[in-house]
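User: I'm new to structure prediction. If I give you an amino acid sequence, what do you actually give back? Let's try with this one:
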Amino acid sequence: MSIRNDTVARQVTPAYDVARIRHDFPALHQEIHGKPLVYLDNGASAQKPRAVIDAISEFYAHDYANVHRAVHTLGERATQTYEAAREKARHFINARSPEEIIFVRGTTEAINLVAQSYGRNTLRAGDEVILTQMEHHSNIVPWQLLREQTGIVLRVVPIDDSGELILDELEKLFNRRTRLLTLTHLSNALGTINPVHRIIEMAHARNVLVLLDAAQAVPHLSVDMQALDCDFYAFSGHKLYGPSGIGVLYGKKDLLAAMPPYQGGGEMIRYVTFEKTEYADLPCKFEAGTPNIAGAVGLGAAIDYVSGIGLAAIAAHEQDLLAYATDRAAEVAGMRIVGTAREKASILSFELAGIHPHDIGTILDSEGIAIRAGHHCAMPVMRRFGVPATARASFGMYNTRDEIDALIAALHRAREVIR
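Assistant: Good question. You get back a string of structure tokens that encode the predicted 3D arrangement of the chain. For your 419 residues, that looks like this:
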């Protein structure tokens, strides 16, 4: 969906009540350095609605106990709530079974789980894994670790000047040793939405598995695992207006069933002696130890909240913000947007000539405006565009055009301060 698409802007109707939504987020109603907070760092982590905060508080106040093994009432309540959160996650991405939903600490742990459980036990020296030039470090480093352990070969799909994958180059990378393609669904550094349906079809036609890093995608795009047909899908709760320290790895059931446990300990076992251990069935096999129960409760509440508003409505609102911000950016002398893909969402990465991104971030903070400045854990992207870092404004469901106006005004002031 192009950020210049006027049809998208017209879809933002009065029915989308951003004032009501903002009322639900306590953190937004404060001042920073004497200025109203303008929070534009949602790509790093989103703020939490009262419904999520209350769900976690109520769980700790009234229902907390460890899950699955207790026969007492609190243990049963906690287990029911925890497994209800798993079902909410399953429904949210339309997985076939709750057994395909593994609770993890976040996207990073999910990718490491696949690398160490599937990759280390399936891939052999000389087997190839394809990544892309736009990946977050969390989808690069685990595969480098695996390369050191097993001797696999990593291939990289380049991106063009707009920040789009060069699919012709991807075609050339596939060969008889290609086993896995792992890529971001939505780039955290550029905002690019990759054509994942087409890419998955390309890979599956060659019997290559696909893992999607969906940390950025899930808060902004509706996804359907059965329609998408990827093999693994990973996302985090904290970008989805939920708590940190919780996330989901989706995997096709037959793949997860064949994979050995990632960690050992309690909960992931059926039977243990000093001679051998029999592992529990899915999903417990991959959830060793006491899980982040309250995190799962909070994630379930966040899914309820987002679903109640509707991802389609949220996406239309955010596309309007992105189009508006892109137009207004043209007014700022020396501002260059990094990432101009035709299909893009939620992220405006940029540089200002003569001003380091960290200085931009510091000046904007003095105006009460929170953005991210740095390499965004995507150093290969920065090298591709010849910059050490960028400033990044990332939009969420509660942001407004007025806040973008405040951002643009602050950028004008930043130029005056540096001059």
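You can read the tokens as a compact description of the fold. Here is one thing that stands out. Residues 192 and 344 are 5 Å apart (CA to CA).
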